[in-house]
Specification:
Layout: E1 2-7, H1 15-30, E2 33-37, H2 41-46, E3 49-52, H3 54-57, H4 80-93, E4 98-103, H5 105-116, E5 121-125, H6 141-162, E6 165-170, H7 177-186, E7 190-192, H8 200-212, E8 218-222, H9 249-260, E9 266-270, H10 282-301, E10 306-311, E11 314-319, H11 320-324, H12 332-336
Parallel strand pairs: 1-2, 1-4, 4-5, 6-8, 6-9, 7-8
Antiparallel strand pairs: 2-3, 10-11
Helix pairs in contact: 1-10, 6-7, 8-9
This protein binds 6-O-phosphono-beta-D-fructofuranose.
6-O-phosphono-beta-D-fructofuranose binds near residues 10 and 171.
């Protein structure tokens, strides 16, 4: 079997570890051959490929990013039929029997549609946002949270020296997982998520209280937090899947606090793409490796239209469609754990 691998959507630490595991296990256990499609679905549409063999992938375990490149190309933007026809043509020309699509909601949404149209495909879920249904976790998230916590640990010391409120904006789009876990692990005084209404009076009261204790407030705000009733969107074109670019929540929070607490000294740090870069944590290397292994076994067993997924401590395949229907956001039960507490 000849397998084409692609990585689509926003990159994250661990993508290369999936590629490595899939190629090493696929060649050794099942005599598979692999090629890589460059830049996600763009490479599949245009037949832009690179060879993938054990020698190329062995050194990749700890390497961030993706050696295949990524893009937010939507191959079905001009209609499913046209996209499927172009993809089938390229698969035939390159002798590819099946695809391994490594991606998040959008990439796996396309994979689901391709599967329904009869294209042989399996998936592996990735995203720092950790917002995919049908898996307890996606790789990339653990590394992103650790990076954010390291940043907060540094920001609180300089904040304390200057009696300043430090505002840290983190990614996560419509799901607050990165903010929730960063806030908890860094000991933030305020954590603002997209999933809940923001009471700015209460936030200001907390900041005042922390300052009165002669401590420096740390506020973690998710880029998707609805500070003025809606998400803060940048003045930039939407991507091919219709997503607006988020950003600016930290600055809005700063302005709202300064209005309420005259004389307050604040600084905003937007962590942004820092959270997506660098070497994967040990936990992400392991999860990514297990997802790569599971996907290859699914291909060998003909379990097409499935995605590797973590349930408790077990990894197994679930239908692709289960992963992409509904976004996994922070549930009320997780928010209730810390509700009303002063840190
Ligand atoms: O989905 C991953 C993610 O990093 C989001 O957290 C963020 O909103 C978005 O991608 C940023 O995308 P881009 O790399 O296109 O700026």
């Amino acid at each position: 079997m000849r397998v084409g691998i692609l990585t689509g959507g926003g990159d994250c630490p661990g993508l290369n570890a999936v590629i490595r595991a899939a190629v090493l296990a696929g060649t050794q256990r099942h005599g598979m051959e692999f090629i890589g499609f460059l830049d996600g679905w763009r490479g599949v549409l245009e037949g832009d490929t690179v060879p993938l063999d054990p020698r190329t992938v062995r050194p990749l375990l700890a390497v961030g990013g993706t050696i295949l490149g990524s893009s937010r190309t939507n191959p079905l933007a001009d209609g499913v039929e046209e996209g499927v026809t172009r993809i089938r043509k390229q698969l035939t020309e390159h002798g590819v029997d099946a695809l391994l699509a490594i991606g998040g909601e959008d990439t796996l949404g396309v994979a689901t549609a391709l599967h329904e149209a009869g294209v042989p495909v399996v998936g592996a879920p990735k995203t720092i946002d950790d917002d995919l249904s049908a898996t307890d976790a996606t790789f990339g998230f653990d590394t992103a949270v650790q990076t954010a916590v390291d940043a907060c640990d540094r920001l609180v010391t300089t904040g304390a020296s200057h009696h300043r409120a430090m505002i840290v904006e983190v990614m996560g789009r419509h799901a607050g997982w990165i903010a929730l876990h960063t806030g908890m692990a860094a000991g933030a005084h305020v954590t603002l998520l997209p999933e809940e209404e923001v009471d700015l009076e209460e936030v200001a009261a907390t900041v005042r209280e922390v300052l009165e204790r002669r401590e420096a407030p740390l506020l973690v705000v998710s880029e998707g937090a609805r500070l003025q009733g809606t998400e803060t969107v940048k003045n930039a074109p939407k991507d091919a899947f219709g997503h607006a670019q988020l950003g600016g929540a930290g600055e809005i929070l700063e302005r709202e606090l300064q209005d309420r607490l005259p004389g307050l000294s604040t600084r905003v740090t937007v962590l942004g793409h820092l959270l997506r870069g660098g070497t994967p944590s040990a936990a992400d290397r392991i999860l990514a490796t297990r997802f790569g292994l599971s996907a290859v076994e699914a291909l060998a067993a003909g379990e097409l239209g499935t995605m590797a997924s973590l349930h408790g401590v077990d990894v197994f395949q679930v239908p692709l469609a289960e992963a992409t229907g509904v976004l996994r956001t922070v549930p009320e039960s997780r928010r209730a754990e810390t509700a009303g507490l002063r840190w």
